[in-house]
Amino acid sequence: MPVPAILAIVMVLLVAAGVGGYFLFSGDSSDPGAGRPANAIPRLWEAASPVSEREGQNENGLRSMWFNNDDIIYGDGEGVRAYNRKTGKKKWTVKTPKGAGEVCAMSAEPSDDGVGAVVFDAGGDDCSYLSVVDTDTGRTLWSKNLQDGHGAERQPRVVVNSKVVAVTIGQTYAGFSVARGARVWELTARGHACTNSVGLSPQYLAVASDCPDAKPKKQLELQDLEYASIHSRSRVRTTRS
Question: CB–CB of 131/114 below 8 Å?
C-alpha cells in the first residue's frame, strides 16, 4: 500500500478516536486545559504511581484495582493502598508482613464481603508471602509464608471468595479459610509423574492432568471452591491417549 494511503488511514483512525485521543496525547501539553474537547471527562484528582519491575505480569498483577463504597484500592511499586474516590486523599497502605518485601501481585478482585489477597516477595525474588486484607480498613487479617524450597515463584495466582482464598504459589496448590487462614484443601497429584495445568477463578478450580502411571492417563476435573457442600464435588471428563 502506498505511504500516502497509509498515512490517510492513520489520520482517519486518530480522528475517529475522538476524546480517547485527547487522553492519550494530552500529557505532552504544558497547559492541562489546552485543546480540551467540550465533552472531555473532568479529572477529579491524580496521584503518583511509582514504576515497579513487576507491573503488568498478568491479570493478577499489580495493576489490579479494588473498590469499596468510598475508596479505590490500587497496587504498584509503592505497595497496595487506598485513596478516597472523591478527594484522592490516601487513607491507608497494606502493611508489609515481617520478613517480606515488595508487593508481587493482588487478587484480581476482592470478595463480595470486602476481602482481598496480596502476595509479597518472601526474599530472593520469591513471590510467596500471602496476606489477606480487609479492603475497608487495609487491616491484615492473616499472613502466611508459602515458600517451598523448590525455586523462586515469579507468577503467583490468588483468588478470593466468601469462604476461601485459593492460591497457586510454587508447588502449593491450596485453599485457605478466609476467616482464620486454616488450610481447607490441597491439590495432590494422581500419580508420581503427572503434568498438571491449573486454572483458578473465585468460584472454580480446574485441573487438567496427564499421568502416565495412573488411570485414566488424561483427566479434566472441575471443583466448586465456594459451595462444594451444595453442588456436586467435581465433574470429571476423561480422554484416552
Answer: no
Q: Say how far apart CA 62 and CA 121 lie, in whole Å.
A: 13
Cell, residue 176: 485457605
d(CA 159, CA 214): 29
List the grid coordinates of 70.
468510598
pTM listed for this prediction = 0.73
Q: How far apart are the first and last CA of the chain?
A: 48
Q: What is the tens place of the pLDDT at every residue in 168-195?
A: 998 888 999 999 999 988 888 888 888 8
C-alpha cell at 143: 499472613
What is d(CA 81, CA 131) in angstroms, rounded to the nearest whole number?
14
**Helix H or strand E segment including 175:** strand 172-177
Residues 88/112, Cβ–Cβ less than 8 Å:
no
Q: Is the dihedral of CA 131, 154, 165, 113 positive or negative?
A: positive
On whether the CB atoms of residues 117 and 131 are closer than 8 A, the answer is: yes
Strand order in the sheet with 115-121: 103-106, 115-121, 127-134, 140-145
